[in-house]
Amino acid sequence: MDHYVFHFGSGHEVTRSRLGGKGASLASLAAAGVVTPPGFVVTTEAFDAVLAQDGLRSRIEQTLRDIDPDDLAATERAGETIRRAVLGAQVPADVHRELDAAYRSLTAAYGREVPVAVRSSATAEDRADASGAGQQDTFLWVVGSGPVLDAVRRCWAGLFSSRAIVYRARHRIPSAGLSMAVVVQKMVPSRVAGVAMTLDPGDGDHSQVVIDASWGIGELLVSGEVTPDHYVVDKATLSPLRTTVSDKREELVADTRAGVLVRRQVEERRRTHRCLTPEEVSAVARLAITAEEHYGVPQDVEWAIDPELPGPDRAVLLQSRPETVWSGAPDDTPGQGRAAVAAGGTWDGTRGKRFPSPREIAAPPGAEGWERLYPYYLVFQEGLRATDERKFWFCDQQHWPKVLKPFETIGVEFSISYLGYYNNRYFLIPRAAGIECRIHHGYVYLSPVAVPAEAASARTSEFLRRAGHYYDNWDALLEQWKREVLGTIAELEQLDFAPLVDAVPFGQVESGAGPDPSDQLSDAYDRLIRLCRRSWQHHMEFLNLGYAAYLDFFEFCNHHFPGIPEAGIAAMVQGADMELFRPDDELKALAKLALALGVADPLRSTDDTDRRLAAVARAPRGQEWLTAWEEAQNPWFNFTSGNGFYGSDKYWLDHPSIPLGYIADYIDRLERGHDIDRHVDDLVAERAHITEEYCERLPPGTARDFTGKLDLARRVYPYVENHNFYIEHWTMGVFWRKVRQLSRMLHEAGFWEAPDDLLYLTRDEVRQVLFDYVSGWSAGTHAVGTAYWPEEVARRKAIVEALAGTRPEPALNEPPQHVAEPFTIMLWGATPNRMAAWLGGFESTRTVTGMTASPGTVEGVARVVTDADELRTVRDGDVLVAPIMAPSWSPVFGRIRAAVTDVGGMMSHAAIVCREYRLPAVTGTGNASTLIKTGQRIRVDGSRGIVTILD
Fold it and tell me: How does pLDDT run across 642-654, given as a tens digit for each residue?
């Protein structure tokens, strides 16, 4: 028996401490007779032998003991030092000898050196109390004994990546005694690949095995980009029950020499030919059944047909995990969880990797008990643990980038509620139901609810009838919508929260008691909440119809123009006349007017707002400019530098220094000869050229369909952004102004220390405070809350501050292999590829990938901005990098060369605004604002979704 190498199928004892998590899982499958890609494990003894030299282990452990996990820069420096030491350490001769012999033995059967996958297999991974998935390394298409050894070294060093170090520190996983095994497996250049389930996923029938298969490597199948053949097999007899052969247009194949995967069209003769023989169908079914017998629960299996394997049995299991919908098995049951075979290197994606569950993330120091700040239905409940942890949740930092104070959950609750209502109960959108929402550590996490395929088909005709009514009457219904929104705003404006009077007027005594002032106060608060709720009903009424029309056109183009860039599709609807750009257009007009009237100098002054405007008024034609300034404010200064979801957002109407600052900047740029206008005519000409080019490729009948879908998308597209001005900016601006008025009134009554502290209460607690206030007023005594709330608010402030000091996990639990809910992709960019990138964490890298949001390639100096207040630091020619970008950031878009965001899809605000300003953009990178530093020179390729750090 080799000491440093364990061969799969050798019959030797399988132990996690020797083989690591992946290695032990693979070995147990092989021992059970499951055919997997051939390979071996470099055991932990080999790693330990390397660290035993020259006191290396003790030096590493001392370095790790001194690390502060919250100091990411110091952690990265320490990790880099350790990794260099591990990579430079001498590999003992006997370790080298056994590894070389194992690789040669593996490749001997093929008569050549075959490519292998080299994967980390840490002893601490997949612990029951913490998941280290995504923390370690994988190297694919490695050929040759020397390169294999190099890859093994890099896996060993990967145990000390900054992300892995921080993760272990925060989860209190001791560094002492850590070890690493490494799995080496033959790559699988699949002739056919797919998935198999040991029950029917449609109805949970355990007597069947259901198989999906397609040509080539299976990534296109699991991502939903090809329609596979479908086989249903009787589990007892392996006899076929149903076979459906599909038109399989594309395949992914391995270029073994180049070590890459190549996407290509399937030739005509194979497209509609079944890709599995009856014997292969039986072999795949047997493979899945064996995995089920081994684990004791129904399995969801990935498999491939390896044409290079000797003998007739060429079906290999790439990965197996418990089925979780019908069997009710937890997604990663300790002891029998996912078999991390991980495809033998065929494709990886996010299979076998996951984000931590919410219960694996410790609260930051000082934030203990944070859950009690929020309503019970917004936090994960222990009684629903098994259900919640089978779902994938992603952090919606696009809308809620900061920790929410308790009162600020109102926007989350009402928006998510009405999104589900319109999707699922009003329009019956075929593929999208609602979205579940939770708050964890103060941040918002969403889990989209897709409609099952069978139900989606049943909803289609009714959706077309209901949505068709809106599309056919779009302009009239939209005008009605606008009148209702303006009516809601007017009702909000009428609300007033003034202190209760010392005594009611005598006239009220003469006319009879009637409603007392406290009743009016309580009613005003209830109306405030009702009107906010109504505004979010308005918000969601048309929104997903706008997305749905664009999505229908998007899918039509992808079907008829294979390979068309996503940005090319978006370009065909750009150049819309959108009201969301009006606030910025008003500022540009005011800047031009200031130069024409000779009042530019006082506007450039650094004095406060009142002094600047007074200086303008003293100018000969200053009053003319001030009149234009006043006229622009209603409604266009109902615009926030944030996004409308936070009580602390600054609105131009309340903070005129913000628009004055932008006007001064426009004046400066105009004087330097810059063109500050957004040339819509150029955008319209470009879209006409692109549209004509694609339309000419289609036969007449299909071209008519193309034109019809495009016309609808263009008609409804402006609403996708315009609603944002009317609701998030204007309506919510008035709402938060009234909330602050009420908060100041209660502050003056002694309920809390700071004027805006009401935000630290839930809206139901505010109702209790009002009753307390009224009771004290009626009796002529102090309200009880004046003794209770100051201390309680201070406690809550400390918790919110502690939560705000910690960056949220981008997602929770295991990501899905296929996202069926279309709006999740269009708005948030939450695709399997993006999730895989998010799992990459905080590793130092030169390349960041994301969504192709707006085409073009530029190079420039990065300016990382995490808050609207930092926009003043943006300089001409910068590349703006931020977690998110709000529509109100438009005034700086004329200064920048490109934009990069952490979150957002093709229809996110950042993507739409960048296309309208013709700026290259990459969205949904996951962590660009963390990896990229201000001052670094970067290249943004918006056509391919790639950001490269150049220095």
Answer: 889 999 999 999 9
